[in-house]
User: What shape does this take?
Amino acid sequence: MSTVLVVDDDRALVRALSIGLRVHGFNVHAATTGPEALRVAGKVHPDVVLVDLGLPGLDGIEVIEALRGWSEAAIIVLSARPQEAVKVAALDAGADDYLTKPFGIDELLARVRAVSRRRVPTGEPVVQVGEITVDLSARRVERAGVLVHLTPKEWAALAILVRHPGQLVTHQSLLEQVWGEGYGTETEYLRTLFARLRRKLEDDPSHPRHLITEPAMGYRLEL
Assistant: This one.
């Protein structure tokens, strides 16, 4: 059973989402402020966090950044702010998805299922990419012997490239494999995700040696 943490200062919405998620088999915890969200997350270690951006105490972006310091939970932003700049800021902070309010419970459940089902099969190899070691079975990445913490979406994208070394993986293929159907044109998601991966894995993120962009086409892992 996946554990979901719902973080929103609208108590009525938190109550409604909690009921809907529990009915569909999720273990649900809730918080209504930024500091409370971090305390609860540290206690229950959620698989998925649903977080509003306008929170008291700490805003949603600060909560995302704090969680990303230690947690591999999938993070979906729930916000009434539709502006692209806000979405990019949330994704760049470490969110995996962004859902604009108002939304239906069926769409939310689909998004939660999509971020929850990304699991790598066991029995896969360890791949060396320069000083980067990728253990596909253990879902573990090290750089020069130091553990690197990746978000579920970052891990999913890297694992796809590792399984196809030297090959172009198109924007559409990455988006649909990592986020699911219906995301084939959301290239800004990939731009922010690969910027984060390069900061974590490349010596010079502005001149990457391994995570290569093929302009207007996709990405390639150069061994």
User: Anything to note?
Assistant: Residues 187-201 form the longest helix (15 residues). Residues 119-123 have pLDDT under 50 and may be disordered. The CA atoms of residues 26 and 58 lie 26 Å apart. Residues 126-221 form a domain with the Arc Repressor Mutant, subunit A fold (CATH 1.10.10.10).
